[in-house]
Design brief:
It is a single chain. About 25% of the residues lie in helices and about 30% in strands. The chain has about 200 residues and is an alpha+beta fold. The protein has one domain. The strands form 2 sheets. A 6-stranded antiparallel β-sheet has the order 1-2-5-6-7-8, covered by helices on one side. A two-stranded antiparallel ribbon has the order 3-4. The termini are far apart.
Length: about 200
């Protein structure tokens, strides 16, 4: 099993009267099995930002390996977002959620998952390489992590503003995605290379 190292950096910024917290999560190696993904999740998803990074990485894995990616998405999603199924341990994402993910990430733009990784841009056609760095922010309206529910915002190179993701903490202290539809919204199209 491959070793996965994680670096979490926290910076506090003060903007006017609203405290804005910024955090990055760095992924140095992509899990190649559901077991290594679960190990990664259990190490990283101990904060809301870590839970968001785990879900974003699951989306990225899905664009390259739909079978493993679907398992990772189930493992990264809040139990209330799942339905009975055969994807992973008797659960699946709802047909509606999987249909939306497939439509947006496979049929419309496979680079959407890349747009959340630092270094991607419309100019470089959202190309990325390891390490993957995800940048998050929260504000006074994000809620209180102590309540077990929190909203954070992920920087997106394909959009003009950060996109929200809702997370819930499970009974084992792992943060999982509970609302992510904004992450599947389209991104700016890269310029077409016309070499005619």
């Amino acid at each position: 099993m491959a070793k996965i190292s994680i670096v979490i950096i926290i910076n506090l910024l003060i903007m006017g009267n609203i405290n804005l917290t910024a955090q990055t999560v760095k992924v140095t190696e992509v899990p190649e099995s559901i077991e290594s993904f679960i190990d990664f999740r259990n190490k990283v998803a101990v904060t809301p930002e870590g839970g968001a990074a785990v879900f974003l990485l699951a989306l990225k894995i899905y664009t390259e390996n739909q079978t493993l990616g679907a398992q990772c998405l189930v493992a990264a999603a809040d139990l209330n977002s799942l339905t009975g199924g055969d994807t992973y341990k008797g659960y699946s994402l709802s047909n509606w959620d999987m249909s939306l993910i497939k439509s947006q990430l496979l049929e419309k733009n496979k680079k959407t998952a890349n747009s959340y990784i630092k270094g991607s841009s419309v100019e470089n056609s959202y190309e990325v390489k390891l390490p993957y760095i995800y940048e998050f922010s929260s504000n006074a309206y994000s809620g209180d992590p102590a309540s077990g529910s929190f909203k954070i915002f992920v920087k997106c190179s394909g959009a003009d503003s950060a996109r929200p993701i809702n997370l819930k903490q499970n009974n084992r202290g792992i943060w999982k995605a509970s609302g992510w539809s904004s992450l599947l919204t389209g991104i700016k199209k890269p310029p077409i290379d016309d070499d005619l």
